Amino acid sequence: MEEVNFNNENEYLESMNRLKDKFDQNEELVKQALVDKDKLRKHLITAYGLIRLIDNGFDDEMGGLIGQTSILIEALRGYLSDAIENDVLKINSD
After folding, report:
1. Which residues are CB-contacts of 65 (< 8 A; sequence separation ≥ 6)?
2. Do 47 and 79 form a contact (C-beta atoms < 8 A)?
3. What pLDDT was estimated at residue 23?
4. What are phi and psi of 33, to 5 degrees?
5. pTM score, two decimals?
6. Which of 30, 74, 79, 85 might form a disulfide with 91, Cβ 3.0–4.6 angstroms?
């Protein structure tokens, strides 16, 4: 590791302040990554739930199944489309 020599206390303090700022930036990035991970997990759980509803619908009688399935598929597609755009690709991020 490279040894760093400081000429005075002021240089040392400035260097430590820059290091602290960099550390704080990294902490914020980690926090945001954890929030993003949690959002994605929620989206996947919701999508899985909708898929389970569709799958369970096929086990029921066929009466009205096509309409219900179509509605659920459209809702799932819209939900996943929004989740992908906003939280994965961050197309509509503020």
Report:
1. 57, 58
2. yes
3. 97
4. -60, -40
5. 0.58
6. 85
